[in-house]
Amino acid sequence: MRTTTVAQGGGPETVASAKPLYIRIFEDIFPFNLFIYKKVPRLLSILGFLALLAPSIHAVTRLEPQTSAEQFLPASHPFQRFYTTQNAFPSSREDVTVEMQFTYGFDPSDPIDLGGTNRLFNPEAWGTPRYSPSFTLDPAAQLALIDDCQTLSASSLVKLEYVVQTQASIKRAFCWINAFQAYRQCMGLAFPVPVDAGSAVLEWVSAGENATCPEEAWPYGRRAVGDIEMGKFDYTADLGWVRDGSVGIRLAWTRLRVDSNMKERSYLPAATLRVEYDQWEALLATVNAAAPASLGSAMQIASKTTGNRENKWLHMLLQETYVRMAMIGITIGLSIAYIVLLLATRNLIVATLSILTIGCALCCVIASIVWKGWQLGSAESLSMMILTGFAVDYVVHLSHAYMESKAASRVERVHDALRTLGISVFWGMVTSVIAAYTLSTLQLQFFSKFGTFFLFTIFWAYLWAVLFLMPLLAFIGPEGVGPHAVAKADDKTPA
User: Which of 135-139, 276-280, 484-488 has the lowest mean pLDDT?
Assistant: First the structure.
């Protein structure tokens, strides 16, 4: 007598009881006899998961990008508590803040030619600069730089520091054009220079620390204002020279620098950085509004160097890319999964029901992280892209086993699928849960969140596959056809 025949006759009896208990549990008891064999439990299982889907979809709509600083350690960790607390306060006079550069002389729309550049294999290859051919330090450009420095210094975005001795505040602005003007006036020379000032600027840089002029007129040095150390003001780094075959050396670009109020070591979310970026872009638009053609439009950079890993705007774009790619990754993952299911099952109905199940499982996974209070940061976005494939495994295995069954009826085909792979799928789920739980207990939050996300994915994918897809196939899955299916149907005669 077959186990299938016994099950259809009212449940496992003599032959089934001869099997070890752990085999009978997965072949006949769970989930087949408990949730699938009878129509009422089967229907209740499907309706229960559909009812769970409604609050899950609502939770998914409340998922938002990271609005607070991501934590690298548990919230209770002393280092993390200090880090979180200091991020909540604005920068003080002791904090190092992000240096903003307003750079002139490049093509603002396309400042670097990246043709033939592959930084993956050559990280030091930054591309070829695209200089503006109209950039010239004529009198109009010199006066515009003076005005731009005043505009930047007057902005509330620039760091203001209080000097105890003088009881006055100073702006952290570093404008080489002011030092050049002071030098020209000290030497009794005209300012602005009536012609292209490139040669005059080169002469000033070559003069260095000129003892006949005040320190404010030097091209480099170290200056303190009251009790505030302004630091090394190496203006020579703000002037970019290139070799020109016709004139020898010419000034190709220049920049003005200011210190912002953004703390350099703070980890700011993309939403906060986007607000800061828009404010600096508005200030840049003000600077460029009256720019003469000889100076051209400036571009702003939130870093001391363009390749600095602390570049806040690059970090902002990276976070926004994580969020965008998470959605794209899920969409691509589900599309590929649908193709794989079609190839594995060779049946449109089973493939469609399977991809529907996977989508519902992922919806519950995302809802779980929302209920847990998480936002869509880098860890969550990467987890979504990576772990989508794990939600496919159980559905693919069971749906493929369903189609491989030679039974004629839907219920029998489900029973065959569970009897063939039920125990394997279960223990595969258990081992994955153990690994994911271990990973979720780590101190580093990126790995902890990845492990937790992995845990949710395995948990929901298994439940939806076993308690939703299998009962659903028992109702509307394709029936067996062909001589083998008919023979098995005839074999249902009680022994």
Answer: 484-488
- Which two tokens mark 207? 């003069």
Sign, CA dihedral 476-477-482-483, equals negative
CA nearest to 374, candidates 55, 76, 52, 75: 75
User: Parallel, antiparallel, or unpaired for β 160-163 and 248-263?
Assistant: unpaired
Radius of gyration over every alpha carbon of the chain, rounded to an integer in angstroms: 34
Quick one: angle between helices 378-387 and 348-371, nearest 10?
160
Strand partners, 256: 102
Axis crossing angle, helix 312-345 with helix 378-387, rounded to the nearest 10: 20
- Residue 435: partners with Cβ closer than 8 Å, 6 or more residues away: 454
CA distance 161 to 98: 15
Q: Are 7 and 32 in contact (CB under 8 A)?
A: yes
Is the pTM value of this prediction over 0.85? no
| 174-191: pLDDT as tens digits | 999 999 999 999 999 999
H helix or E strand, kind and range, residue 334: helix 312-345
Compute the average pLDDT of residues 163-168.
Answer: 70
Of 81-95, 192-206, 235-249, 479-493, the one with minimum mean pLDDT is: 479-493
User: b or e along 54-66 (b: 16 or more beta carbons within 10 Å of the residue's beta carbon)?
Assistant: eebeebbeebebb
Which of 403, 367, 387 has its CA nearest to residue 58? 367
pLDDT tens digits for range 370-393: 999 898 888 888 888 887 788 889
Q: Is the Cβ–Cβ distance between 149 and 176 less than 8 Å?
A: no
Note the pLDDT tens digit of each residue in 229-242. 555 578 999 999 99
Domains and CATH numbers, the chain: 3-67+319-490 (1.20.1640.10), 97-115+125-263+269-301 (no CATH)
pLDDT at 85: 75
| 147: nearest Cα among 287, 24, 40, 269 | 287
The beta-strand segments (E) located in 209-318 are: 222-225, 228-232, 239-244, 248-263, 299-301
